[in-house]
Design a protein that fits this description.
Length: about 1250
């Protein structure tokens, strides 16, 4: 490296060092993780360093429990905000604005509009999190391009083109993150990294592809969003890529996402992706291996339970190191820090957004605006009656409108949508009725559904079949082991079994060598959705029938439920007529869909009587969704028949389709009696209002298709084929390569006006890979109404060698512009030439074809209005982009050393030889940790530091750093009581109890530290009972090691046999009217009242306490007047104050939307310290604790450890759980209260926040309170 470069670097580094040591007096004395003078990463490593191994393991999942002693609240990484906040956890059951879904907003082609949407979504998220940050990390958006419309989650993506997906995702991400330079408003997560484009085999399948398709298509959005928009999180997919589960691939997660693209944030696995390594892909042999492989690959958190149950055992087996856990947790806690969770609200810009921001009227206005900009008009022909185009509707010629179809009076929001305020959910029918009323039109509305959306595929799924002979011989066959099949039939593995999927009407599977001799019957094991007919034939799909069976939905309990998961299998038997045929034969099973019901006469009469027939059809979540692909692209149910039947009686039929993506329309698109057609995705809560505005011409439709509309599913390649390029009978994928005709091309969409393009120009006809070019042209609105046009720029490279199979064209620019009627607007679209790359597999980097680049300008990928061209010359100047410095440990002890590792990648996605680069290492706090010229780190004294690497390559310097913590030694040398060492002292046990005699003097506690640099601060007990507090404090990190020494006399049991309680008791917030010794003879009865002591409620009345400031065992027996209602609770409490206590309680079962019948109750062991509660363990009871059924509870304290037991038979106790808590000046007793919803409750799936209580009181009667004391003497 040149001397001048070294000098410049040193000047930069000195400046950084000076900045690092600038003190902030407002943070004096704070622990580093609460000190805003440090970087977020330094604070995160400090926090993680203070955790026990058990705590670290517990935090490696999507639900991160509280760590009360550190002031860390429970947090759920899993939030959903795909098109509005979805009610989970603390906001379960609450409403939020629901915007159009992804495939709908993709058709707006308007990134800035989507940024406005997600800024509002983030505002509502902050409103929900105003009082307590519990979830501000949202697993949205889906940035997977939709390579195949059969994908069940097409509705969740923005389109098929990676450039369009990237631009819309960019707006989404920027809006959600906000623009504050320090804090994030909310955290987006790009998913599903990557190529997760089939649902049927996502848990066990592999997306196989070459490097070109991987880089140019599947990874392209991630590359841009991470590099340019600083996307702070990604989710790894369930599936494998080229045989390796994504979550197990260090190359895909670490090398590409972090070290190539520069991901600076956290990585989560999809829910169950880590367990799929074992159960789905069979890639590992144990959960410990899956845990180690996931963490080492760079997956920081597991949505599931594998990490949280297997990390410590993986550590014990030597499969990974504690540093692998530390790095993952630092990544996650850095994100939590960036949300301001650990900072004073007054310095966090977004902390002031209050709950009243949720469902603000302006948010519904925005939902309406977006819903008017997403619909795509597919057809608008001349009306034979008026001589004008059928749309917009001419109200002067209309007296009656028939509104028909299964989607007419339905608000389909799509997956990952939260609840919506009822008055804001506007169906098309309601929207049209409102519009007519608001505008005073004299138009009659008649309505009938007339159709259904029953699924066209997988009407049943077959697992196996069994042949049964007349003499009882049984032979079983796996239905997925067929010898031949119709095209498109697939095998799916899930939940430990396999099944046939993708079954369409007329599909078949063939099985050789089935012996027909003396066969009596055949038994099918299947899951039934819509039902249908199953035929067994000889020899071929048209051979002689030997068995036929009608399959009804009610032959399986739950038939017609969520079909994505298949439902529970059932057995259906059919008699066989062998037709005299014997011996081994080929049996062909043929599958017939259920017969579509005829269109009812009432519907057709309404259609015939109207001036206009509006037919609202489409898909819904039974058609396709997560876990459920659609193998037919036809409109589900009898909707196609409905459309054609209505058109046959009304020549002014307009079809409005709302769906998850494209549908086959060749059956009716050219019908002259259907002059109008509109499509939209699931268009949000305001879909009806928006569609009315479009139909009546208040708004001019301007959306364009973000997905190609194929003529037939039979035109597509094999569903599981991830190759994009065509050849050898493969038609290719997406408009990039697909070589057949389509119904509607990518980018297609009509308007109520017409646009004329002219004057095409390019700013430079000679371009290089490093430059930019501007394509300019005029667009004239040649019609009579204002309108939006989406101008599109596609690029093709005609000089590229044919052998390279370059795409036909690629979208590289677009702009949505509003042009008043008659005006001409000059439109300029900038194209960054560095984005015109292809992947060079041989040299493993991006490359550029030389020669002509044709820039096509058009209103769709097919309707090209003009073109300009430029010649590409020169070489790409790849510059240094991403530097990653790493270390095999980030938590040190003084004197420890470790060697860093370093990688550096260029903007062409290649890696440099790091040994040939100029490198300068630097610590921002050398007194804590220093680093030598070779990157070796030495820990010097307690504190945190960041180790920087400055890499210079061809004149460009890029730096990066990692944080580390040097731990203080807070180990006591000795703790004495009245000059005597504590008997049996263990530094890992933080509390000791002394049982004293009456009239004992207050003992004196002294202590010394092993490290003489550690301060020892002792607060002596002020009385007996009382607690001495011993703190060992490091003044560098303000970390402390605290020990409690408790002193007390014997406590006193009470059998509650007298007319009043004993004088050992005190009431907290007593209400005499709500406790009684006479309500139940020999019992103390307490009636529940509003309040609790959990999580800041601190208002429970009638807490009965006595001193218990030592070790003890407490037992009680209780019975209730009725089952508790959420969240009523009662039991034993060990109490320091309202913010620090241990409670073993009988409480209501956490309510969910899936519960049925009476829930007897739950036993819950809860610890709260510093106002933060944590549920240690719980178990649901099978019998009510009423009448003669009583419940025994036992709580033991030994040192700082509390152990909970219960007994439902009155004889044997069962262990519930054990945990630690540091309480002082302890009192113990009984509590009964109405309770509050705690953080631990809200993590329950399908949580229902309802707290409606019965009319009868919740009385809890205690038979006794027995306490046995123990302690040192």
């Amino acid at each position: 490296m040149k001397l001048k470069q070294i000098k410049n670097l040193l000047l930069i580094l000195i400046g950084v060092s000076i900045m690092a040591f600038t003190a902030d007096s407002g943070n004096a004395g704070k622990p580093i993780y609460l000190n805003t003078a440090y970087s977020f990463k330094e604070r995160a490593v400090d926090l993680v360093s203070r955790m026990t191994l058990e705590e670290k393991q517990s935090l490696l999942g999507n639900t991160m429990p509280a760590i009360p002693r550190l002031g860390v609240n429970k947090y759920d990484i899993w939030g959903e905000a795909l098109h509005g906040i979805m009610g989970r956890n603390n906001n379960s059951g609450k409403t939020a604005t629901s915007f159009p879904n992804s495939v709908a907003v993709g058709s707006t082609w308007d990134p800035e509009l989507i940024m406005r949407e997600t800024s509002v979504v983030a505002d509502e998220a902050r409103g929900f999190n105003h009082d307590l940050i519990f979830t501000l990390t949202y697993w949205s958006p889906v940035v997977e391009p939709a390579r195949d419309p059969r994908w069940g989650r097409t509705a969740e993506t923005f389109g098929e083109d990676p450039f369009l997906v990237t631009q819309i995702s960019s707006g989404f991400i920027r809006g959600l993150m906000g623009d504050d330079p320090t804090y994030l408003k909310a955290v987006p997560c790009g998913k599903h990294y990557f190529a997760n484009n089939t649902e049927f085999n996502r848990h066990s399948g592999s997306a196989d592809m070459d490097d070109r398709d991987m880089r140019e298509y599947y990874l392209s959005p991630y590359r841009s969003l991470i590099t340019n928009d600083k996307l702070p999180s990604i989710m790894t997919a369930y599936s494998a890529v080229n045989g390796i589960p994504v979550s197990a691939s260090k190359f895909l997660v670490d090398t590409i996402a972090r070290r190539t693209y520069g991901l600076d944030g956290y990585v989560t696995g999809d829910c169950g992706a880590i367990s799929d390594m074992l159960s789905g892909h069979h890639y590992v042999q144990s959960n410990e291996e899956a845990t180690a492989l996931g963490l080492i690959s760079g997956v920081d958190t597991d949505c599931g339970s594998v990490y949280q149950t297997s990390a410590l055992s993986a550590l014990e087996k030597g499969l990974m190191t504690e540093a692998d856990m530390d790095k993952a947790l630092v990544n996650v806690f850095t994100i939590r820090m960036r949300l301001g969770e650990f900072d004073p609200p007054e310095i966090v810009r977004y902390a002031g957004i209050r709950p009243d921001k949720i469902n603000d009227p302006s948010h519904n206005d925005l939902a309406v605006e977006i819903a008017t900009k997403s619909p795509v008009m597919l057809k608008n022909e001349i009306s034979t009656k008026t001589g004008k185009k059928i749309l917009p509707l001419n109200v002067t010629d209309i007296k009656k409108i028939a509104i028909l179809g299964p989607q007419a009076d339905k608000v389909e929001l799509g997956d990952y949508s939260g609840d919506v305020e009822p008055e804001l959910k506007i169906s098309p029918l309601q929207g049209i009725q409102n519009h007519i009323k608001d505008n005073g039109y004299d138009i009659e509305i008649v309505h009938n559904s007339g159709g259904n959306t029953e699924r066209k595929t997988d009407f049943f799924t077959l697992n196996s079949f069994t042949t049964i002979s007349k003499n009882g011989i049984v032979k079983e066959y796996d239905a997925t082991k067929y010898n031949a099949s119709a095209s498109g039939v697939i095998t799916s593995a899930r939940f430990g079994g396999t099944s046939l999927r993708g079954i369409k009407d007329g599909d078949w599977t063939a099985y050789d060598n089935i012996d027909l001799t003396d066969l009596d019957s055949i038994r099918f094991r299947m899951s039934v959705a819509a039902g249908g007919i199953l035929e067994a034939r000889i020899g071929s799909a048209t051979g002689n029938i030997i068995a036929t069976q009608k399959i009804e939905p009610d032959q399986q309990q739950g038939g017609g439920a969520f079909r994505g998961f298949g439902g529970r299998p059932t057995l259906i038997t059919s008699k066989i007529n062998t037709l005299g045929i014997t011996g081994p034969q080929t049996i062909v099973l043929v599958y017939r869909e259920p017969e579509a019901p005829e269109i009812d006469k009432e519907t057709l009469d309404l259609a015939a009587s109207a001036d206009i027939a509006l037919v609202f059809v489409g898909t819904d979540q039974s058609t396709g969704r997560e876990e459920s692909d659609r193998f037919s692209l036809a409109l589900p149910g009898n909707q196609t028949e409905l459309i054609k039947a209505v058109a046959a009686v009304n020549s002014h039929t307009i079809v409005v389709m709302q769906g998850m993506g494209m549908v086959e329309v060749e059956d009716f698109k050219n019908d002259p009696d259907i002059p109008g057609m509109i499509w939209t995705g699931y268009n949000g809560q305001a879909q009806g209002t928006a569609m009315a505005k479009i139909l009546f011409g208040e708004v001019n439709p301007g959306g364009k298709l973000s997905i190609s509309w194929y003529k037939s599913v039979s035109d597509l390649p094999d569903f599981n084929d991830y190759t994009l390029r065509g050849g050898n009978g493969n038609p290719g994928r997406t408009y990039w390569y697909f070589d057949k005709d389509v119904s509607y091309e990518f980018g297609y969409g009509l308007s109520y006006t017409t646009f004329e393009y002219s004057n095409f120009e390019i700013s430079d006809t000679r371009i290089t890979p490093n430059g930019k070019v501007t394509v300019s042209f005029d667009i004239k609105n040649a019609g009579e109404v204002d309108g939006d046009e989406i101008a599109q720029v596609y690029v093709r490279t005609p000089d590229s060698p044919a052998s390279l199979q370059r795409p036909v064209k690629r979208l590289k620019g677009f702009k949505r512009v509003t042009i008043p009627a008659g005006q001409i607007k000059r439109v300029s679209i900038d194209v960054d030439c560095s984005g015109l790359w292809f992947w060079d597999s041989e040299n493993e980097k991006i490359a550029f074809d030389k020669g002509r680049y044709i820039f096509e300008i058009g209103s769709s990928s097919k309707n090209i209005k003009g073109q300009v061209e430029a010649n590409m010359t020169g070489e790409y100047n790849a510059i240094l982009k991403t530097v990653v410095i790493d270390c095999n440990k980030i938590i040190f002890r003084p004197g420890n050393t470790a060697q860093t590792s370093l990688t550096a990648s260029l903007s062409d996605d290649s890696f440099i030889d790091i040994n040939k680069a100029g490198i300068v290492y630097k610590s921002n706090n050398p007194s804590v940790a220093s680093v030598d010229d070779n990157g070796k780190v030495t820990a010097n004294k307690p504190g945190t530091a960041s180790i920087f690497a400055y890499v210079t390559w061809e004149g460009t310097t890029v730096s990066n750093s990692f944080p580390l913590k040097v731990m203080p030694d807070l180990t006591p040398s000795v703790i004495t009581v009245n000059g005597k060492k504590i008997k049996g002292f263990d530094p890992d046990v933080k509390a000791y109890s002394y049982l004293l005699k009456n009239n004992s003097k207050i003992p004196v506690v002294n202590a010394t530290s092993l490290d003489k640099g550690i301060d020892v601060v002792i607060n002596q007990a002020k009385d007996v009972p009382g607690t001495a507090v011993v703190n060992f404090i490091d003044n560098n990190t303000f970390e402390k090691n605290t020990f409690y020494v408790n002193f007390d006399l014997n406590s006193t049991s009470d059998d509650f046999d007298n007319q009043s309680i004993g004088n050992q008791w005190d009431w907290i917030r007593e209400n005499k009217a709500k406790h009684s010794m006479s309500a139940k003879n020999g019992y103390l009865t307490i009636t529940s009242e509003p309040g609790d002591v959990s999580e800041g409620s601190n208002n429970a009345s009638n807490i009965l306490l006595q001193s218990a400031n030592n070790d003890w065992t407490i037992e009680t027996k209780l019975v209730a007047s009725r089952v508790p209602s959420q969240p009523e609770n009662a039991g034993i409490i060990a109490y320091e104050n309202d913010d620090s206590f241990v409670k073993l309680m009988f409480r209501a079962v956490i309510k969910t939307t899936r519960q049925r019948g009476v829930q007897p109750g739950t036993i819950d062991f809860l610890i709260e310290e510093n106002g933060i509660a944590k549920s240690v363990a719980s178990i649901n009871l099978r019998s009510e604790i009423t009448g003669n059924n009583s419940l025994l509870l036992k709580l033991e304290k030994k040192g700082h450890e509390y152990t909970a037991y219960y007994s439902v038979n009155g004889e044997e106790y069962e262990l519930l759980g054990t945990d630690v808590a540091l309480l002082k000046d302890i009192r113990a007793g009984l509590i009964v209260c109405d309770g509050v919803i705690t953080q631990s409750m809200t993590s329950t799936y399908y949580f229902d926040s309802d707290t409606t209580k019965p009319d009868t009181p919740f009385d809890v009667s205690f038979d006794y309170f027995h306490i046995t004391n123990s302690g040192l003497k």
